[in-house]
UniProtKB/TrEMBL annotation:
It comes from the Bacteria. The keyword Cell membrane applies. Residues 49-69 are annotated as: Disordered. The keyword Transport applies. Keywords: Cell inner membrane, Cell membrane, Cytochrome c-type biogenesis, Membrane, Transmembrane, Transmembrane helix, Transport. It comes from Methyloceanibacter caenitepidi. Residues 59-69 have a biased composition (Low complexity). This is Heme exporter protein D. It is found in: Cell inner membrane. Required for the export of heme to the periplasm for the biogenesis of c-type cytochromes. InterPro entries: Haem_export_protD_CcmD. GO terms for biological process: cytochrome complex assembly; heme transport. The chain crosses the membrane at residues 12-31.
Amino acid sequence: MLGLGPHASFIIGAYAVAFVALGALTIAIIADDRKQRRLLADLERQGITRRSAARRRPAATPTVTRTAP
């Protein structure tokens, strides 16, 4: 079996478990992201906005004063 020696079944099993765990974590993260985006959209529809969005203001032009040379 691909030159893995007598422990081939253990090695392949370990890789399989790792891939299944990574897949499960990926699916859980994607599901949570969708849930959070849905909740945020519901709150924004109700008129509740994020604090970080309220802080965004157009950048004021800096006032530069020149001194005579």
